[in-house]
Amino acid sequence: MHARPALTGPVEDYLKAIYELESRFGAAATSDVAHALDVAPASVTGMVRRLATQGYLDHVPYRGVQLTPCGRQAALRTIRRHRILESYLTGVLGYPWDRVHDEAERLEHAASDDLIERMAAALGHPTADPHGAPIPTADGLIEEQPHRTLAELPVGETARMLRVSDKNPSLLRYLAEIALQPGAEVTMVARAPFDGPITLRIGNSEPVVGPNLAAQVLVAAMPSSGLRSADASGSLPSTAASKPKSRKPTAR
Amino acid sequence: MHARPALTGPVEDYLKAIYELESRFGAAATSDVAHALDVAPASVTGMVRRLATQGYLDHVPYRGVQLTPCGRQAALRTIRRHRILESYLTGVLGYPWDRVHDEAERLEHAASDDLIERMAAALGHPTADPHGAPIPTADGLIEEQPHRTLAELPVGETARMLRVSDKNPSLLRYLAEIALQPGAEVTMVARAPFDGPITLRIGNSEPVVGPNLAAQVLVAAMPSSGLRSADASGSLPSTAASKPKSRKPTAR
DNA sequence: CTCAAAAGTTAGGTAGGCCTAAGTTTAAGG
DNA sequence: CCTTAAACTTAGGCCTACCTAACTTTTGAG
Questions:
Q1: Cβ contact (<8 Å) for A112 and B89?
Q2: Which of A 34-93 lie inside 8 A of B, CB atoms?
Q3: Which nucleotide is nearest to B250 (CA to C1')?
Q4: Which nucleotides of C are covered by protein (CB under 7 A)?
Q5: Hey, what domains does chain B have and what are their CATH numbers?
Q6: Do A95 and B110 touch (CB under 8 A)?
Q7: B208-209 and A158-164 as β-strands: parallel, antiparallel, unpaired?
Q8: What ipTM, to 2 d.p.?
Q9: pLDDT at position B4, please?
């Protein structure tokens, strides 16, 4: 870990994307990274080799990629910068939450640590960004809340909206319209069978949304007890709310 | 002017540097640009050719370079961004004035126009940055104040401090220490002959500074009359306060 | 007016990051 | 087990922006 060279923009983006894929799927596949960064798979292979020789990740050809502690640290630093920037843009400069992602994406590579910490201080050291994503601490600790998706919420139950991806502006605009934002209380009123429309209650309104949308919204895992409640539609038989639903790339 | 491609970071830096050299010397010499950007002269030649073919400047080989209206516009846009960023960093985030330049230098290439305008609005649309440099308007108009250097101020006269370069942190720290900041009233108390030390009065203190420093500080041209006042030291015989002291590169 | 130093340019090369096209390897179905 | 599609990698280029070294032009001192 002896004084690595300063990270360039692209490198930070790769590490960040790999971190995010890894925490969702357990490992990052070349093609997923390529898709996330909108580059050709061949470009990923090349960059991954470079990052592996520099100690940021382990790469087993054809099998996937995983961050080393050092790479994870670098990724979390970038994620912290990104989320503090998003928080600052909405909290201080009045940006709508659907437009902060792109701006933060560019600024996160240019801002100094000093600037980031000044922004964090101005906000009172927030622990989550405007979309509900947790902000890693300066020394790389991140606290994930236990959660499930809104789609999984049993009919009749109420939960607190926790988080949604920052990457889809039109989704975010729509969510703002129906007041489904982090912290909001949302009740599962009804769910039509065969992946049909879902009726929610948020405050006094009862928006009807698609299952696709509901699957993208995370809600707090449990205000109360365990998770017994047989209801109509198909719900995942998975045990609890830990994420790594290992997909294909198995690295190692 | 029909929709040119988005400017990359380096390109913006070249245009900005050329603009600044041009407004100081009337034209920009290759080696001056190279020095300003800390690159080799050969690199400047190459980039200049590219910018010339793209219509941002006119280049007469061996004779210098000059911005086209289009290039000037681009340069002023970058300068506006830079100066608003500097203003915001000091005004809102509490940066000391000697540390804003580097930060702004990086951010100016990453921030969107929207962000810049939000910052300007948050500051009440300032017309000068923390070092006293005028901020061009969004449509590229810049208003230079008439000025002379502090070194030229006749003994006994008082002037308002107008401006100093943002590029020398230790100079800025020293100026802050003696309270010589834009808007401050400064009186020329005495000037030792042969480019000797200069005694000033600022508020209740009488700092003594070198002629080198005094030459870098600009003061408002005239609170009152014309400029008769024979005094000891050598003062430039130039007519008034218009700057372009044409040096070598004569372009055209 | 000459001629060397200074300033500028050309030539050729490096490195980062990307691409397409053409192989390899893996996984999955028959 | 064989075969084929999908995933991945290699090979070979391109472009930007930089460099050094060698050459040309301009300038200014004598």
A1: no
A2: 89, 92-93
A3: D26
A4: 7-12, 16-22, 25-28
A5: 9-67 (1.10.10.10), 147-220 (2.30.30.90)
A6: no
A7: unpaired
A8: 0.84
A9: 65
| A110–B contact, CB cutoff 8 A | yes
Backbone angles phi, psi at A121, to 5 degrees: -65, -40
Which H/E stretch holds residue A162?
A: strand A158-164
The answer to whether some atom of strand D lies closer than 7 Å to the beta carbon of B141 is no
User: d(Cα B87, Cα B16) in Å, to the nearest integer?
Assistant: 18
CA angle, corner A6, sides to A3 and A10, nearest 5? 140
User: Which pLDDT score, from 0 to 100, does residue A250 have?
Assistant: 45
A119 vs B: CB within 8 A? yes
Element (H, E) at B43: helix B41-53
Angle at the Cα of B141 (from B139 to B142), degrees rounded to 5? 140
Contact between B80 and B136 (Cβ < 8 Å): yes
- How far apart (Å, rounded) are the C-alpha atoms in residues A87 and A95? 9
Q: Per-residue pLDDT tens for A13-37?
A: 999 999 999 999 988 999 999 999 9
Contact B95/A at CB under 8 A: yes
